[in-house]
Each structure stands twice: as structure tokens, then as C-alpha cells.
Amino acid sequence: MSASNLEGRTVEVLELPAGVDEELLYLYFENKRRSGGGPLESVEIKQNRVVLVFEEAEAASRVLSKKHHVVHNAELSVRKPRQKDRCRLLLRGISPYTSAEMIELYVENMMDLNAADYTLIPSAQRDLLLIHLHQPLTKGQISSL
User: Fold this and answer.
1) 95 and 48 share a domain?
2) Which of 45, 81, 107, 124 is exposed most, by the fewest CB atoms within 10 A?
């Protein structure tokens, strides 16, 4: 299936309450009457949020259009997942004392880039660095990071 088709079938649930397990989420979001959903391809719990992939984009659309989702007496917040920008990466945890040359060498070696392929934009505190690529990363490059 194409990536755009996957995006249309994916829903993100934010602020998942404690005690809600994967089986309960499957049952709730596959129940068309309660959630508007339908058959799920996958449920992936990531800390306090969940990524749901439905078999059909229509089910994801119905879930997103429903105003209230309640599980374990807690209202769930659902949204379309944010789209990833394949031209920008954020590098965190940099020592403010690390030289610009060291960072450039690191970026070039880790991503197999030339200096003309990117622009580095440091944060004011110099502990974060935005790597702006002049060409989007390919899926192969992303998976190797």
C-alpha cells in the first residue's frame, strides 16, 4: 500500500489514560456503533499516545469526525497524525561547547551528505540544531538513521 493510503487510514489518540490496554482499544475502535471505526490493521501504543491504522480510510475518517470518544470514563483526543517533514531533522542534546565543525562532520558522516546538501540552524541555547536538507530524505536514508 502507498504511504498516502497509509496516512489516510491512520489516526493518533493523544493522552491515553492509565490502565487502557491494547485489547480494549481494538474492541472500542473496531466497534462502528461506538467509535465510528471499523477493522484495524494495527494498534501501536507509544507512551501515553496510540497510533491506530484502520483497514479502510473511511473508518479512520468516521473516527476523526466523531466529536467524543470515551474509554474508561476518560475522553480521548483523536487527530490525524502530523506529517513528517523529510527536509528537516532536529538534533537534540548537543553540548553548547561543541564546535560547528564537529557538528558538520557528524551530520555529513551520519547522513552521507556534502556541505552543500544542508543548512544547520542552531537554537539560541545551542543545545538543539535544526538540519535543513536541500533535498528530501529517501525512505532508505530515513531507515538508516
Assistant:
1) no
2) 124
Most confident of 20-24, 61-65, 106-110, 135-139: 61-65
Q: How many domains are there within the chain?
A: 2
Beta-bridged to residue 120, according to DSSP, are 131
- Give the total residue count for the chain: 145
Rounded distance, CA 43 to CA 46, Å? 10
User: Binning pLDDT at 50, 70 and 90, where does residue 10 land?
Assistant: very high
| CA 53 – CA 64 distance, rounded (Å) | 13
pLDDT tops 80 at residue 143: no
Q: Where are the beta strands (DSSP E) in 15-133?
A: 40-46, 49-54, 69-71, 74-79, 88-92, 118-122, 128-133
Distance CA 25, CA 138 (A): 33
Domain that holds residue 56: 3-79
What is the C-alpha to C-alpha distance for residues 59 and 66, in angstroms, rounded to an integer? 11
Residues 10 and 75 placed together within one structural domain of the fold: yes
